[in-house]
Structures are given as C-alpha cells and as structure tokens.
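Handoff note, outgoing to incoming analyst
You'll be picking up this chain. Sequence as last confirmed:
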Amino acid sequence: VLTSRPSAVSASLRKHVRTELSLKGFSEEGIELYLRKRHREPGVADRLLCLLRATSALHGLCHLPVFSWMVSKCHEELLLQGRGSPKTTTDMYLLILWHFLLHASPLPLATHGLGPSLIQGRLPTLLHLGRLALWGLGTCCYVFSAKQLQAAHVDSEDLSLGFLVLAKRVVPGSTAPLEFLHITFQCFFAAFYLALSADTPPSSLRHLFQDHRPESSPLARVLPKLFLRGSRCREGSVAALLQGAEPHNLQITGAFLAGLLSQEHRSLLAECQASETALLRRWDCVRRCLTRSLREHFRSIPPALPGEAKSMHALPGFLWLIRSLYEMQEERLAREAVCRLNVGHLKLTFCGVGPAECAALAFVLRHLRRPVALQLDHNSVGDIGVEQLLPCLGVCKAL
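Most recent structure output, in case you need it:
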C-alpha cells in the first residue's frame, strides 16, 4: 500500500501490514538536490536557494515535495516580483494560480503584473473549477468523468488552464477521466468557490470548522447529487457537501478559506468584483468559528492533579485550527484565541508537526500570557522547524 495520506489507512488494514515506512518529506539537502535537478541553467538554482534560505517561512513549506515543485514552477515570479516572498500556504497557492493564469494569457507579465486583473479575467473558469472541486470533496470523488465535467459547466477553455490533468488510472476502452493536479489543489479551488460564490450562505461555512462525521441521512446523500444540477446552491446542499467530505480534506479547505479571507487577500478578491460586504460576512463567520472551536478545545482540558502542572494533549483538530489562524495573519485574533489558555505543559507528540506547523504555532503561542513547556517529540520538526519556533521561545519554559 502506497499512500500520501496515511490517515486514510484504517486500523483494520494495519493488522495485515508487517512493516510500515513513513516518508517525512524533503530534508534540506533534498530540497537543494531537487531544485538543482529541475533547473540546470547557470545561476537559477543558486538564486532560488538563496531566496529560500533568506525566507524561512517559504523554506519551511518546501519540506513537502508539492511546495518544492511549486517553487520550481513559479521561479520566475518568485525571483522577479517585488511583492515579497510567500509566507503562508494560501500565498503559495495564489502564486501558482497566477503562474497558470499568466501562461494562459496572451499578454506578458509586464502588461498586467500579478494583480486582480488576472483573476478577474478568468473568474468564471475559476468558479467552474471550484464548484467541481467542492462537489468532488463532498462526494469523495477525486476523478471526474466527462459527464461530471459537463454538469459542473467545465468546458475546454476551463481545462486549458491546466489544473485538471489526465488521471493516472484509466479503464481500457473508456473516456480518459480527469483529476486535479494534487488533492490540495482541489481543496484550494473548493475554498475559492466558498469565498467568492454569490450562492454560498456565510452560515454554511461553520461546517468546515466543527468536529463532525460524514452524514449518513438520506438528505445528505441526495443533496450533493443535486448540487451540480441546480442553478443555485442552497445552504442545505452546501452543508450536506461539507458534512460528506473526508475530515482531513475539510481541514485543508478550511485553512485555505481562512487564508483567502485574510485582510491582504480579501482586498484582492474584492477587486475581482466580489462583494466586499459578503466577504466581510464570511470573514466574520470564520473568525467566530475558529475562536469558538479553540475555546471548546481549551474547555476539554482536565483539571491538574495536585502538585502537578496543568497539561493539555492536543486533540486531532487543534493543529489545523492553529494553521487556520496563521493563514489569516491577524495578530489580534491570535491573541484573543489563546488568552484563556492556562496550561503549564502543551503536548504535541505524534501530531505530524513539520516546519510549516512550527511557523503557525509560533505565530499563535507567542501571545500566551503564561510560560508553557512545549513537547514536540515524535514529529518532523528539524532545524528549519526550530528556526520557525524562535518567535515563541520567549514563552517556552521548556522545549
């Protein structure tokens, strides 16, 4: 069994597995080797590596191979633009979006730059892809037939953008199905649709940030099928789609949505003919959901035993809530989120913490009012992750 999503492997399947190997991603040496193999032109790889080493947040993302691929793909935009380097996951996915839009545009980069005009010109295409992506997540469908593409109004012009590619597994004699470049691209386009679609009620977004299980009611099974057929999507259909999605994909989509609704990107989307009032309503809903979910986590902490420090072991969704706060890049919200956290020991063992998660933890935990011992054993922190943690070491009495 080879999977890039270990959480999809059930306990019953693990009974039949004798040896299990986990690939943690690229080491710092692996990042350099990959970029040098991708760019053999004189000086290009050196300039990219210098940029990464000077931008720790971007460097931390690249331990995941998909981000190293994106950095390689967008090297011209990264090296030429004067807007500053991407910091969050959403920043990087917007940059790759601009890269694909630029290559599909007959106009050169100097004509319109990396601005809202690029997105505005292809907004219908992006919403078509987003509608398909959201429907696919809600029905656990990741490979799409020609009929499904037609139902989502995805045409040849939309396909020419390049985010949908031929699926690797094709049944002989059938029409070749398509899939998104990577599951995270499907999550990104679903978040883009939720942020910009005029038919998405802000109240339906709360399903992204609550602990729920896939709904098995007849209503939840029927509504996703109607989603692509109807001209408008009602709150019930969006809610059913979100309840039917795999929890891990919901977390990724929620983090992207939080990033798209950050102040910087919200301004960009507003310039793309989106309603600023609607965006603010979505932002307010996401903000309240994140704050409420974190408080529920904190309330679940058992009282300390006599003579011992109060301890919190992170619940499965805790890290993704922290990642979502980081994607929003709002200091005040991060401060409010942890102001009531009163623990002496925060345990994050076996939580899949990598350099990117370390950057998110530092962004939020540096606002703690009381010192905390942070336990990060059995993760993939590495030297780059330790560098990301520097801003919060002042409140860490032990690491």
